[in-house]
Amino acid sequence: MFKALTKKETYIKYLRSLKFGLYCMSHPLDGFWDLTHEKRGTYAAANTILIITILVRILKLRYTSFLFLQVYWEDINIFLYIASIIFPLALWVVGNWGLTTLFDGKGRLGDVYMATCYGMLPYPVIQLPLMIASNFVTIEEGQFYSVLSVISLVYCALLIIFGMGQIHAFSFGKNILFTIASLFAMLVLVFILMIFFSMISQGVSYFISIGRELMFRM
């Protein structure tokens, strides 16, 4: 009985935290402050928002009208397509957390991840109806589709910026500065990763060549 009650309470908390994402969309300052400082958000809800965002991105490829999105399936690798969402997210989270930690940022790594995922919620909320509507509008009416599509991306970016300011307790100017710095940090991380994997590749090639030489001599 106790275990069942605990599971039910956990499920209710999850639904409330997922619904709280809509509050963050309409009240970003209060919402993102409560998200972490008042423990209104959960990692489960953040993961759900991320998964829904990825699913909507994939569904757009299949169900958006060809008038607005032409897809050449032979050129698409679905795993790379998913990685194109997760990899920049990971770079942003690590880059932002790493920089803000050095300059008295209040947010933890998990807080940055959670706020970023919650900030992505406008994308599925706006893009899913747009995907459906794209099959019922003409090319002349497509300007509304394009404008709303851009708005969804700008909305997400603004929410993420507001979210970072609230969880780190930064002023507006300091938050903008660290947002720009975080973007540069992402480029630095990409550069470091490229060097790292290049060194690994060269190391593997070196040992393979040694192994082939030994086999040849034997």
Secondary-structure map:
Elements: H1 2-26, H2 28-37, H3 43-63, H4 78-102, H5 109-119, H6 122-133, H7 142-168, H8 172-217
Helix pairs in contact: 1-2, 1-3, 2-7, 3-5, 3-6, 4-5, 4-8, 5-7, 6-7, 7-8
Keywords:
218 residues, mainly alpha, 0% strand, globular
In words, what does this structure look like?
The chain has helices at 2-26, 28-37, 43-63, 78-102, 109-119, 122-133, 142-168, 172-217. With 218 residues, it is mainly α. The protein has one domain. Helix 4 (78-102) crosses helix 5 (109-119) and helix 5 (109-119) runs antiparallel to helix 7 (142-168). The N and C termini lie far apart (69 Å).
Mean pLDDT: 85
What's the alpha carbon Rg, rounded to whole Å?
A: 22 Å
Number of helices: 8
Distance between termini? 69 Å
Structural domains: how many: 1
Tell me roughly what share of residues is in helical segments: over 70%
**What overall geometry do the principal axes of the alpha carbons give?**
globular
Please state the structural category. mainly alpha
Element-by-element helix/strand order: HHHHHHHH
Strand fraction band?
Answer: under 5%
Low-pLDDT parts are none
Question: Major sheet, described briefly?
Answer: none
